[in-house]
Amino acid sequence: xxxxxxxxxxEAHDSAVGEHVPAQPKKAKKEDKTPNPVKVAKPVKAAxxxxxxxxxxxxxxxxxxxxxxxxxxxxxxxxxxxxxxxVATVLSAQTTDLRVxxxxxxxxxxxxxPEDMAAAVPEELEQIIRPTGFFRAKARSLLGLSAALRDNxxxxxxxxxxxxxxxxxxGRKTANVVLGNAFGVPGITVDTHFGRLVRxxxxxxxxxxxxxxxxxxxxxPKSEWTMLSHRIIFxxxxxxxxxxxxxxxxxxxxxxxxxGEGETDPEKAKKLLKYEMGGHPGQRLKPPPGFPGxxxxxxxxxx
Length: 303
Ligand code: SF4
Prior knowledge:
2 domains, Endonuclease III, domain 1, binds iron/sulfur cluster, 46% helix
C-alpha cells in the first residue's frame, strides 16, 4: 500500500530528470519489513489566505489519503458487544486503549452483563480496573451505569444519544463512540488526538469539542464521520503526536499547514512512529482482520 502523496513525489522526480539522463542500473532496495512502510511526500505549506472552499477541498483530500494510509483504521478498544464497548470507553479516560484492553478480559470474565456488574462488590471491581487509573471514580461510573442499564433499559445498551448521555460517566464523546461502533450510527469522536489534528490542519479554530464537532460535521458527509474519526485518531497516535509530531515521516505532510511543528529529519522522524507504523505491536489484544501489525501483549507481559 502506498500513500498517494508518495506517488506524486515519484512522478515529479521522474519528469524532472526526463529523457536526457541515461538509464542507470537500479540498486536493489533493502526490503522494509514494517507492516505499513511510510512513504513521505514533499511537504507543501498551505497558502496563508486559504479560502473556505480551498480548506474544504484540502480536508476531503486529506481524508481520502488517510484512508489509503490506514485502510485498516478501527476502534482500538477490544469489545464483543455494546455493553463491553461502553464499559471499555468509560475506562479509557485518562489512559491508553492498550491499558484498557489489557484490563478488560478479567473484568468481562467476572461481570459479563450489566446485572453482574451492578451487583459487584465495589472494592473487588476497583481492584480489577485499578491498572486503568482513577479506579475509584471509574468503578462508581461502572456501578452506576450498569444499574441504570438494568433498571431503565432492560439491561440493553440504548442506541440513542439522548439515552446514552443519561448514564453515569457517559458524555457525548463516549456516546458517539458507542453509537458509531456498536450501532453503525455516524458519529464524530472529538478526543484529544482528533481536536489537536484538526486544529493543526486549520479545519477549525475551536477548542470546545462540541464546536469542533459542528465544524467538522459541516465539512464531511455523515457517511464519513465514523471512519474519518478512526483515521484521524490513528494518525494522531502514530505520527502526529502531541509534543513531537513526526513531520518528516508524515504521509500527508503535503496537505498540512503545520508541517515543521515537529521533527522534519526523515530518519529521526521515523523513529518517532508508533504502533504498526513503527514496526511495533498495536493496542488491541484481538485486532480485527486486516490489521498489519502484531497484537498487543497481555497485562504484565514485557511491552
Ligand atoms: S505530523 Fe507534522 S506534517 Fe504530519 S499532520 Fe502532523 S503536524 Fe502535519
